[in-house]
């Protein structure tokens, strides 16, 4: 364990009162930090991830700069399919791209099961970090649906038309793809936890593109399997379940397992607890655009989030999505200080 007894993040994740409201930011490492840009170099993020010393440094940078209460591993949700040789990369300015998308059963043969040895560079990075960090390290993986959407579409999409068509036209193939990606998610997160990460987040970033019926039918059983198997392998370890534009799916997402619910900026915290239960632990949910608007507006937004939470112990402060590349780090630092002070400027 790297964190101290009474750790604010782990306490809040369990719904227990902490010494302060914990803060971390999705995408807190990366392009918004000048120290990152200085040493990042050229090429795919997947190549940087394969260098444990470099990936560990990128993970540590925001912890040093912001005094956040958790580190999140510098990695990417397509590392597992990349590691098994499916044929996917992350194109700068575009995102995950696959020149040969997964559209047929023959394509599924390229998505073999993930072995821990495939991701030795990831566990090596975790080993470095557990010696350096004094806050919890968050493991993470993409949820099966969100990873599937990249593999099937071949690139980021606004419509997910190929993904939706496949789930309805060939449900058996769809379920086989999702089962394979459940294995990837579980193996990826479990490896990180086994090497010292202390909590995890499952990113189902694009689940909000689905109707409630399609989510419940084609996605929820597989995401439930991820959380269930991780709970069996790592009893007591807290997981966070996050998606964007998922207000209509909150009840379904909440029912996949004993998870912290990550909220984007659209759903008020108070309303989420009215719908899901008064003891629901939530993460979020400052609109990242407010951070781009400067310190005063960002702090006003943070004040509103804290007021919305109304002192509930089960609250991890975060943005409602990831840090944007053009974010001013000084504004984020001011937000952390403000939240740690209990909302006092």
Written description of the protein model:
The chain has 16 helices and nine strands. With 345 residues, the chain is α/β, with parallel strands linked by helices. It has one domain (8-340): TIM Barrel. The strands form two sheets. The protein has a seven-stranded parallel sheet with strand order 1-4-5-6-7-8-9. It has a two-stranded antiparallel ribbon with strand order 2-3. The mean pLDDT is 96.
Write the topology of this structure.
Layout: H1 8-13, H2 34-40, H3 45-49, H4 52-66, E1 71-72, H5 79-83, E2 89-91, E3 95-97, H6 105-108, H7 120-132, E4 137-142, H8 144-153, H9 161-169, H10 171-194, E5 199-203, H11 212-233, E6 238-242, H12 250-254, E7 259-262, H13 269-276, E8 282-283, H14 288-292, H15 295-309, E9 315-316, H16 329-340
Parallel strand pairs: 1-4, 4-5, 5-6, 6-7, 7-8, 8-9
Antiparallel strand pairs: 2-3
Rounded radius of gyration (Å): 19 Å
Q: Overall pLDDT, averaged?
A: 96
* Secondary-structure element series: HHHHEHEEHHEHHHEHEHEHEHHEH
Question: How does the overall form come out from the CA principal axes?
Answer: globular
Give the number of domains: 1
Oligomeric nature of the chains: single chain
CATH architecture: Alpha-Beta Barrel
Q: Structural class from helices and strands?
A: alpha/beta
Distance between the termini: 33 Å
Helix content: 40-55%
The amount of beta strand, in percent, is 5-15%
Given as residue ranges, the uncertain stretches (5+ residues, pLDDT < 50) are none
> Which strand order spans the largest sheet, edge to edge or round the barrel?
1-4-5-6-7-8-9
Tally of separate helices: 16
What is the CATH domain class? Answer: Alpha Beta
């Amino acid at each position: 364990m790297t964190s101290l007894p009474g750790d604010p993040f782990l306490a809040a994740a369990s719904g227990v009162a902490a010494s302060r409201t914990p803060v971390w930011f999705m995408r807190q490492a990366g392009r918004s930090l000048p120290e990152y840009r200085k040493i990042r170099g050229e090429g795919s993020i997947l190549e940087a991830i394969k260098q444990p010393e470099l990936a560990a440094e990128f993970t540590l940078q925001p912890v040093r700069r912001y005094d956040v209460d958790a580190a999140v591993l510098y990695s990417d949700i397509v590392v597992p399919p990349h590691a098994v040789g499916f044929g996917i990369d992350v194109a700068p300015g575009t995102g995950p791209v696959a020149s040969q998308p997964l559209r047929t059963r023959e394509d599924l043969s390229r998505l073999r099961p993930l072995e821990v040895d495939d991701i030795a560079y990831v566990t090596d990075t975790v080993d470095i970090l557990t010696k350096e960090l004094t806050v919890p390290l968050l493991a993470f993986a993409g949820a099966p649906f969100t990873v599937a959407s990249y593999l099937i579409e071949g690139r980021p999409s606004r419509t997910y038309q190929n993904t939706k068509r496949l789930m309805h036209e060939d449900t058996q193939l769809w379920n086989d793809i999702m089962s394979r990606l459940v294995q990837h998610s579980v193996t990826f997160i479990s490896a990180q936890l086994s090497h010292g990460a202390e909590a995890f987040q499952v990113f189902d970033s694009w689940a909000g593109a689905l109707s409630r019926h399609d989510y419940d039918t084609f996605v929820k059983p597989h995401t439930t399997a991820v959380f269930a198997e991780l709970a069996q392998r790592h009893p007591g370890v807290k997981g966070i379940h996050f998606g964007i534009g998922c207000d209509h799916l909150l009840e379904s997402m909440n029912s996949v397992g004993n998870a912290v619910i990550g909220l984007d900026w659209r759903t008020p915290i108070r309303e989420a607890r009215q719908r899901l239960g008064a003891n629901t632990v939530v993460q979020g949910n400052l609109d990242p655009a407010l951070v781009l608007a400067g310190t005063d507006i960002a702090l006003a937004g943070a004040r509103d989030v804290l007021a919305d939470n109304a002192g509930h112990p089960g609250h991890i402060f975060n943005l409602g999505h990831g840090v944007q590349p053009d974010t001013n780090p000084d504004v984020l630092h001011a937000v952390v200080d403000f939240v740690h002070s209990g909302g006092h400027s």
